[in-house]
Write a structure and sequence with these properties.
The protein is an alpha/beta fold and 256 residues long. It has helices at 18-26, 46-56, 71-81, 100-111, 142-147, 174-184, 210-222, 229-249, and strands spanning 5-11, 33-39, 60-64, 86-89, 95-96, 115-123, 131-134, 139-140, 157-159, 189-200, 251-253. Helix 7 runs antiparallel to helix 8 (229-249).
């Protein structure tokens, strides 16, 4: 049997989207997975919805936090309790294509990669037909990533046997800080340029305000050791260029 994949999902007041997210995992052609959903003290019907799925499928597990702690803490709690060799990250409002895990694991195993990510599309409503696809490079190292934050959190799969201390960093843009942390150690992230996931743009979310997001990215750069002010400004300008290019010139798909 193929190695177990642990799907890590932090959940907070996501009653409107969590069903679709779970269904996208249930619909995977690869079936040897567990899904650990950590509820971060939701005040809506998130818990009751997840409990419905827990009763139907023992691969789905619900974990409760005693106090609201943020997505990084929630993800780390799930990672610490996970049993799989592979860790796959999926937020509570995002979706996977049915062949996501199957194709990505095959990509990892055939090439002996320990950190991979894929292309993905973006949408506001599940019924959206026209969507931009954000393509990815074949590989990216630390300095390349500082110039282009191209790794989508919902697409990442890591091999926990090879990256044994894998965890999410804390702070604004915790996923970006996490990729910086591991790439800085010399790990290379490899991209599978196939659209295997869908990122939901939610009004009021961190990522919806591009100006604030850019400011947060600059703060991530400031946390990197050995990077002076001039280099930091250079990396930020490259990041801004790639961000604009991605949004203006990305391919449009109607295949969802």
């Amino acid at each position: 049997m193929s190695a177990l994949v642990s799907v890590i999902t932090a959940a907070y007041n996501c009653e409107k989207t969590i069903r679709e997210t779970i269904d996208s995992v249930l619909n995977q052609t690869f079936t040897n997975w567990e899904m650990l959903i950590v509820d971060d003290c939701s005040t809506d019907n998130t818990i009751s919805i997840v409990e419905e799925y827990v009763e139907k499928d023992n691969r789905i597990k619900l974990i409760h936090l005693e106090k609201n702690s943020g997505s990084a803490t929630a993800r780390n709690v799930a990672i610490n309790r996970s049993s799989g060799r592979y860790i796959a990250l999926l937020d509570s409002d995002d979706l996977w294509k049915p062949e996501k895990l199957e194709l990505q694991l095959k990509f990892m195993k055939s090439n002996n990669y320990c950190f991979t990510f894929t292309a993905y599309d973006v949408f506001k409503d599940s019924k959206d037909v026209r969507r931009k696809i954000f393509a990815v490079p074949q590989r990216i190292n630390y300095k390349q990533f500082l110039k282009n934050s191209v790794i989508g959190c919902l697409t990442v799969v890591v091999d926990k046997e090879r990256i044994q201390d894998f965890h999410m960093e804390s702070g604004y843009l915790e996923d970006t800080l996490t990729w910086m942390h591991y790439l800085q150690k010399g790990i290379i992230a490899y991209g599978l340029n196939k659209n295997l996931a869908s990122y939901r743009i939610t009004k009021g979310s961190k990522s919806s305000n591009k100006i604030e997001n850019a400011g947060r990215y600059y703060q991530c750069l400031k946390k990197q050791k050995g990077i002076g002010t001039i280099s930091r400004i250079y990396y930020f300008m490259c990041y801004a260029y790639h961000a604009v290019k991605k949004r203006l010139f990305s391919k449009i798909t109607t295949e969802i």
